[in-house]
Amino acid sequence: MADKTPAELKQDLWQKMADSPFVMVGLMDGGHHIPLTAQLDKDQVDTLFFFIGKDNRLAKGGDGMAHYVSKGHDYFACLSGTAKIDNDPALIDKLWDKQAEAWFPEGKEDPNLALLRFDIDSAELWETDISVSGRVKMLFGGTIRPSESSSHAKVQTTAESSQA
Q1: Most buried by CB count within 10 Å: which residue of 6, 69, 73, 119?
Q2: Known Pfam families for this protein (predicted)?
């Protein structure tokens, strides 16, 4: 596992986010992150969407960062990009689900509804999977070599088929 390619790490990102789409998102000038549920659109690579209120501090947009930890705490991503409102009605229809409906009682016509688009410019991805020998070393205080512990990649696109 420790020798996964960047393409494999990218594929893992989208599979894990589909299973647990919760991320912390913040703007670079704000210093505060908030938890949001990402809406994934398979037709738009390198983009996350979030249903937010127009009064949400992220609604002003700008350079931002999103942090992701998988459900199993074995995959981590730090995503840099740009946030902006994209209230395309067709996109809202496509991404709308019961979870969004719970936050916006008036549905897709709620006057406070905004769709935040986060375009990923670059990403740093880590996947940890301590090998059997690494686990034994952890138990007895030995040193774990990088090849026994994890994979890491810095990428300019999270598209599965592109190279880093």
Answers
A1: 6
A2: Pyrid_ox_like
